[in-house]
Each structure stands twice: as structure tokens, then as C-alpha cells.
Amino acid sequence: MDNLNYGIIGNCRSAALISKTGSIDWCCLPEFDSASIFAKILDDDIGGSFNIMVSDDYNISQAYDPNTCILITTFSEGKDCFELHDFMPRYHKHNGDYHSPPEIIRYIKYISGTPKMKVLYQPKLEYALGETETYIKRNFIASLTHKVKFDTVFLYTSFDKKKVLDSEEITLNDDGFLLLAYNEKIFAPTIENIYLELERTKVYWLNWSHKTTKYKEFNTEINRSALTLKLLSYDKTGAVLAAATTSLPETLGEARNWDYRFCWIRDASMVIKVVSELGHENIARRFLKFIVDLIPDKDEKLQIMYGINKEKRLTESTLDHLSGYMGSKPVRLGNAAYKQRQHDIYGILMDVIHQQLVKFKTDIENVEELWTITKGIVWIVSNHWKSPDKGIWEFRTEDQHFTFSKVLCWTAIDRALKIAEILDKKHKIGKWKFLEQEIREDIQKFAWNDDLQSYTQSYGSKHLDASVLLMEPYGFIQASDPKYISTVKAIERELSHDGLMFRYKNKDDFGLPTSSFTVCTFWFINSLFKIGEEKKALEHFKRLLSYSNHLGLFSEDIDFRSKRLLGNFPQAYSHLALIECAVNFSTRGKDEAILESIGNIAAK
């Protein structure tokens, strides 16, 4: 595994990662956070995979069917050629619900000649704990485990089942299929049924992409990122996952390995804001319902993260029998960070609620619940904004007064004031306005460092942090403000390395990071754009896009030296920030006079 050269398929219930040579190396069924069926990405020997193999004479190429989440891997050797169309079914049913079963379909499309292939089918249920036994039955191949926990999966195929299971050579002269199902099928699938599933799923994704707002530039990148974010959304509850994987390391050989198959309020809120701005309203409605359901009590504090089915306890454990991605242990399940206190989540959530009320004021069914949540968040922020917390980067050591957390506490009150205006709740404005001014003055007094001419990571600190670049997008400061321009310049000097950004350089719980947090580079590019350095920002943006994998996908991190992708994959944070950058560049030129004047200030 020389890089995270994987594609993702899914149906908003679960997902699978498929290598550039057609091997399913990660999949959890029936849902995103279920135990893995295939986990070769976390252990090359015992993790389990589902591979389509050809001789070394074949050329293998891979691309998404345009504007869909159907991944096509092409195998060709002279006139012998076939395609592998991988997807998880998703389309509208007659009653308006979605057909999205916990299934993977591998449609083999015959192209020409007499191509030959072998199937390597090695499911390892329940994270490869215990033994998985596989048997040929009359209508399917069944795999089961019962040593640790009972579980089963079923493989249906148009090919000879024994040849499939024994990895014998299969000569293609017509289309065929392999269907992995978590549940036993009532009716045995046929090639006609499978082709219909493919076409229906294709139409669903084409329709979804058609609704995505089109821009002057970077439409391909915007749409692929939007589709990826959609794949990380969980229809059942409205949750949005941070990533589809667990324990892909931020740095090879270190312990910065986390389970990201959960819904972080921060990440999800940012995703919802971006995707709804692209024209997809239903995902926002479902997420707001998710939030309403999470907070039944008016004084209940938000956790920073929840399980995708609204679980509040995400106890962390390790799978010590798995060797980890390229030997990077431990492999973790759960995430102990759910207990942390991070004040920024309130501002980010309030920002999304405000956005949705602006867009759909007369068409939000739970507006009364959202007003109750707004008042509750103001109460929580007013009582806790002066307290230290763990911050956006989830430091596991002592709490600090992080600048980003304070700015987002201000954001919470600022958006609450705007919501009160929208809903004509003017009796709240006077009291809340005083709180908003108090927080603003506190930040201005304690977060600015005169020596560095920059806002710093935390009050009284000399350390810089990429997260303070978001002070401008959240409206705390104008891009033309000399203090913001100076902060951007200081962060560029101290945290930029070969065009990629450190989150921070002060040592954390695990020492100095050696990889760049991808979203921070996108934030930096946006800040350059905002202060008028458009040409420089665009150069950085195009360079960063070149570091994606062969399908345009990004993980959480990029290694500073090799530029290889690291961290959980694909990462929602990275793709939402990519969209924000691309949209900025696509709409530039509207206010050229303003940008020029800002650029003149930045140059001084």
C-alpha cells in the first residue's frame, strides 16, 4: 500500500473502500460503524478482502462513472477487456423511501475478446476476531463466525460458485455479477435484476449531481467532493460521519490513530452548511432533526460527538490482534474524545441553524425546537465561555483558553442575536448583545500578541494555530482588518512548509506532527484569497489538488515530505474545505475593487 489509492462506494447506510486494482479492503455491514467484513487496510494478512485478480499482462485503470458514486475499474490486455462496476444500491422506491440495502454489487461488464479473471473472496467477520467459515450452498456462498459473536454474510453470483470460492480462472464471454448481501435474499438475484439495480442507482446519483449548484470553475472537483460528503451521511438519523474508517494513522508508525466513524457536531455542521449551499436541502433537514432528537432536555450540554444512531457513550477499546495500517498500531474502536469539553461546537452549530432559518424560515417544521435549542445554547455559553477547554484539536492534556473556542462562543451569541431578529424575539436582544460584546472584548484583549503581530493559539500563548484563520469566515473580523492580514502573514511564516500547513508547531500529547492536516491548508488558501492574494492562493490550491489520489479524494493528512495521503479516509473536513475554496475561486471577480484595495493593504 504505497498510498491511500482507494475509491469509496456507499448508499448512505454503509460504505466500502476499493483499491485501484479492484480489491475491497474495507467494509462494515450492515452500517458504517458495524464490525468489519473486510479489513485488509488494517491488516494485510488477516483483515480479509474481496479481490478481482488478473494476470500481470493486464492494464488496470479506474474512474468513477461521471457524476455518480459507481466506481468502474477497467481490465484490458490487447483485445481482451472487461469492466468492474462497483456500487451499493440506492434509489427511490414507489412510496418515496430509499432502497438502500446493506449490499455490495460487483457488476462484471464484458467488453471484448476472451478476458480471464480470478476471484479472491476472503471475508473475515467481526474485525477478524475468531474464525470465519465459508460454505457453498445451493443458491449462495455463506460465511459465518460464532466464536466471538454470531454473524453471517451471503455471496450470490452468476459464476460457478466453486470456481469463485477456490479462486479458479473464469473466462468471460458475457456479463456477470457478484452480490455480497448482509441478509439472505428472498428471491435469488438474476443478471437482469442486477443490471436494473445498476441503472436505477446510476439515475439516482445523476439526479443528485444535477441538483448540485454549478460554478464557473472546478465543477468536477466540487461535485466529486459533494458526492463524497453525501456518502458520509447516514440517512437513518441524519448523522454525518467524519470519515468512513478507523485507525488510519496521521503519521506512520505512531499512535495518532482514531476511530472516525462517528458524528462530530463540528465537522457535521460544517458539512451541512456547505452541502446545503450547493442546493441539497434534505441533508440539512435530517441533520437538524438529528440535533433536535439529541437534546431532549433544555439544560443538556452537547457532547462534541455522538454515535451515528445517537449513542452518547463511545467507549474506546483496541483490537490488538490487528497489525494496523502499514504496522501503525493500535487499531481503535470508539473514541474517548466524546467526554471532552470543546466550547466551539456551540458556535458552529448555531451558525448552521441561523443559515437554515435564513434560507427556509417559513419551511422548517421544527423551528420551535430550534428556538428552544438556541436559548439553551446561549445559556450554556453564558455560563461556560470563560472556562478553558480541550480545543478544536482535542488536546488530551490540560485545558486551555483556546482562541478558536472563544471566537466560536462569540459566534454562538452573534448568531443567536440574528435568529432572535428573524423570529421577532426582540426581548432577548438587549441581554444577549451585552454578552456578545463582553466575549468580543475579551478575545481582543487576551488573544492578540503584540510581539508576534498575530492572534495566537490560546490566551497568553506565543504559539500560532491555523484554526484562528477562521476568525474571518465566522465574521469576528474583516479580511481587510490589518490585524487579520498580519495574522495570516504570521501563520504563513511559522506554519507553512512547502505549501502545506501545520495545525500548530507546539508539541502536543504525541510530540511534533510530521504530517499536514489537509483542512488547514485549505483554510490558509481561503485566507490568502480573502486578503486579496488571489494569484498566490490559486497556485497553492492547484498544487494541493494535485496531492489528491487518482480519484480526486483526500484523507485527513498529507505527509510533508512524500506528499502521501495519511489519516482516516475519505475525510469530510478536507472535502468541505475544498468546496469552500473552489466556490471562492469560481465566484471571484465580483468585487474586484474591494479585493484590490485589500491586496494593497496586505502588500504594505
Automatic annotation (TrEMBL):
GO terms for molecular function: hydrolase activity, hydrolyzing O-glycosyl compounds. One of its GO terms (biological process) is carbohydrate metabolic process. Residues 223-582 form the GH15-like domain. It comes from Cerina litoralis. This is Glycoside hydrolase family 15 protein. The keyword Heme does not apply. It holds the Pfam family TREH_N. Keywords: Hydrolase. The keyword Hydrolase applies. Residues 8-131 form the Trehalase-like N-terminal domain.
